[in-house]
Automatic annotation (TrEMBL):
Segments forming domain Type IV secretion system coupling protein TraD DNA-binding: 3-82
Membrane disposition: Multi-pass membrane protein
Taxonomic placement: Bacteria, Pseudomonadati, Pseudomonadota, Gammaproteobacteria, Enterobacterales
Protein's name according to its UniProt entry: Coupling protein TraD
UniProt key word Membrane: yes
Location(s) in or outside the cell: Cell membrane
Keywords recorded for this protein, A-Z: Cell membrane, Membrane, Plasmid, Transmembrane, Transmembrane helix
InterPro entries tied to this protein: T4SS-coupling_protein, T4SS_TraD_DNA-bd
GO cellular component: plasma membrane
Amino acid sequence: MKKIEKTAISIRAVLTNYVKAIRYLQGIEKNGEPFTIRDWMRGVREDRPNGWLFISSNADTHASLKPVISMWLSIAIRGLLGDGREP
């Protein structure tokens, strides 16, 4: 039972970090097509001119955004590795 409690506390701590970071994403790009990293990566692989993608943060929000930035990078890398083509 003790192990289950520790696992639950650990999961809650991880989720709390991600949920805190999500508040910074509200209201982005209300007009136009929604942006997704997965679609952007797909375009790179299909030789569409997508340009550069910069992911930045300022000192005030960096600690909160770190989990989201890690998630975006993970999505981008998995998109490249999962499409089945050779680099």
